[in-house]
Amino acid sequence: MAKNKMGRPTNSPKTLRVTARVDEKVYNILYEYCEKNNISIAEGVRQAIIKLNDHKK
Fold first, then answer.
1. Tens place of pLDDT for every residue, the chain, 57 residues?
2. What is the pTM assigned to this prediction?
3. How many Å apart are CA 23 and CA 4, to the nearest integer?
4. Three-state SS across 1-57?
5. What is the end-to-end Cα distance of the chain in Å, rounded?
6. Boundaries of every domain in the chain
7. Taking the CA atoms of the chain, what radius of gyration do you get in angstroms?
């Protein structure tokens, strides 16, 4: 029997990991945004990166 990873199927697998060190001010901004919008910290970072790319256009 093949040992495949079990989990929810997705059309957009998250295979890459990004780490960053931030100061308390930046963390609090991110945390408050995520709490307000009921999203995870990781999703908040993804949204911020996408917004940076959109702003560039």
1. 556 667 788 888 888 999 999 999 999 999 999 999 999 999 999 999 999 999 877
2. 0.76
3. 39
4. CCCCCCCCCCCCCCCCCCCCCCCHHHHHHHHHHHHHHCCCHHHHHHHHHHHHHHHHC
5. 48
6. 24-56
7. 15
